[in-house]
Amino acid sequence: MIQKLSNKVYMVGGDGSANVVIIVDSKGAIVVDTSLFEEKARKIREFIEGVLKKRIYLVINTHYHPDHCFGNIVFDDVQILSSSLTKKKMSLMDADYLKDLPMIKKPVLPSITFEEDWCDEYLQIAKLGGHTPDSSVVIVRDEKILVAGDLVFNGFHPEIVSDSNLEQWITILEDLRRRHFNWVIPGHGEPMGMVSIDLMVRYLSKIKRLLAGTVTYAEILSDDNFSRREFPELFSWGIENLLSVQRAR
Ligand SMILES: [Zn+2]
């Protein structure tokens, strides 16, 4: 499903899989994240070139997770931009990492990188961390639209992975909450306003309290902010990831 959020910004997704964002400007089109699937990425490219009649001149990967960068294969003739850490993490994917993933031998790596942030007249990109050490956000400056990558999940339980930093994740979202965005485009789920950042802060803070023993599972299960999110298996998986990191310390 393709949603037009503003004159310049389209979002493909909302079904729980990773969202792909299309930004059009006077130079052409930018694609933020490329999905897990080559076929889906190809259809998105056809839409941009065939329907929007725009030339894609830049692709951005918000982080290294396969559902955000494996569609890069369809854009191997376009400049692909990510943080240098994202590129490094993608380049380290070996046969063992790739064995359960669909038909990808090696991901197409970004061709240009930045260290901490990247800016032009339209976009501001910042590597912030939190969800993964390389998680970046993209801000469409004049439209005040935040492409949050997996720092925000809307309507779905977030993927809390073994390299997530819960403390840092909450701080990043609290900082973003002090700004104003007309749209917050999550990594997964429907686009929403600032409330989706509030809900994520509340979610992650409660997980932190669960680990500290100051809130119970029963209280969490009765909270709408948990019970209404889809993919409940991600909730227990996330807690297990956090506990295994805690045990390893
Ligand atoms: Zn992710």
TrEMBL record:
Superkingdom assignment: Bacteria
Residue span, Metallo-beta-lactamase domain: 17-188
Name of this protein: Beta-lactamase domain protein
Species this chain originates from: Pseudothermotoga lettingae (strain ATCC BAA-301 / DSM 14385 / NBRC 107922 / TMO)
Coiled-coil blocks: none
InterPro entries (alphabetical): Metallo-B-lactamas, NDM-1-like, RibonucZ/Hydroxyglut_hydro
Classification lineage: Bacteria, Thermotogati, Thermotogota, Thermotogae, Thermotogales
PANTHER family: ACYL-COENZYME A THIOESTERASE MBLAC2, METALLO-BETA-LACTAMASE DOMAIN-CONTAINING
Matches recorded under Gene3D superfamilies: Ribonuclease Z/Hydroxyacylglutathione hydrolase-like
